[in-house]
Fold:
Amino acid sequence: MWTGQDTLGAALGGETALPRNFLLRSLPQHELERLHPFLHRVTLTPRRVLQHAAVPIEHVYFLENGLISVLASADERSCVEVRLLGREAAVGSEALLGVNISPLRYFVQIGGSALRISVQDLNRASAEMPGLRAVLHSSLHDALMQSSQSAACSLSHALLQRLARWLLTAQDRSARDELPITQDLLARNLGVRRASVSEALQPLERGGIFVRERGLITILDRARLEQFACRCYRLMRPKLERPERAKTGRWPLFLLSLITLLEIEFLAQ
Ligand SMILES: [Zn+2]
Structure:
């Protein structure tokens, strides 16, 4: 029988508010109460690697705020961003599939905090908690969906569309009005030259859609920015809702994933 340890006070400081992570927020109350003692809050320092590639996964991180880039290795010296994670996600949840070493790297783009749990404790908890299993499986499905759509986007959409999609996604997932992102980082995330990013940003900035100041990008007009973004933005938007409501959309999401994979196959030919 899996039983909790009394570390709740240390982890959550006696908070009574809803969890900031949307996976935890989706859990039935009794499961959340049983899980709390195993969660420890950690600070996510910007520009640090949260989980290295090819290193055993020891912890799963339920993100509360901040922004994580998931990076796939393109060659020995460079990486490509395959998806962005924020408060709707957990880093390292693939460990639940029995994968304890991943080729992916998790890089902290924007600092924040997360609730950390050991893989061992999470495995024991998920064996006894159907609600927890459901939200983590849903999260793994989202990861597959995002990675597939990201590949389709890189192959088929223009830089300006991808840039608009990236800024909107970063704001949604980090829940920040000001994004501490430089042109260098944007270029690296999108896999293009810095000069290309600079050129693409200019019409958006001149149109008053965002302002840049001291390394911060502040989006002023989301509605107009959405007009520039490709359809991938809507397809990759996080579902910030309870799994009971999400279940009704499972078949359409499955079909969407299948269509996306077929689209990538077609584009790659
Ligand atoms: Zn796209």
Remarks:
- The chain has two domains: 7-153, 158-229.
- The pocket of zinc ion is lined by residues 153, 157, 161-162, 165, 230, 232 (CB under 6 Å).
- The mean pLDDT is 84.
- The first helix runs from residue 8 to 12.
